[in-house]
From TrEMBL:
The chain crosses the membrane at residues 7-27, 47-71, 78-102. This is Uncharacterized protein. Keywords: Membrane, Transmembrane, Transmembrane helix.
């Protein structure tokens, strides 16, 4: 991949990640509703889902930093792979939305 193409791909994907933070705020606010039941405070699954949602901005920031460091070191393929880490949060959400609207 050429340097200009890789830089454009990094910039575009990171802009998408930054825009997705607006939706993340809503999802984080709604995820607190998972603790409505008194038993939920002791449920490990509820806590894991909440923490998974909570660390999304850290994953974006970490992948952005790592991606640009690797890009500067001319390791473009590794930069693109690191830049794809936030997709672990976005793809399940998109699949869920597609499933919800298709049903």
């Amino acid at each position: 991949m050429k340097r200009g193409t890789a830089a454009a791909a990094l910039i575009m994907s990171q802009l998408v990640y930054l825009v997705s933070l607006v939706a993340w705020l809503f999802v984080l606010g709604m995820s607190v509703m998972g603790f409505d039941s008194p038993k939920a405070a002791y449920d490990v699954t509820t806590w894991l889902i909440f923490i998974y949602i909570l660390i999304y901005p850290a994953a974006i920031l970490g992948s952005m930093i790592a991606g640009w460091i690797l890009f500067a070191r001319r390791r473009r393929r590794a930069a693109m792979l690191w830049n794809g880490i936030p997709l672990l949060w976005l793809l399940p959400l998109i699949a869920l939305l597609i499933y919800a609207f298709a049903s």
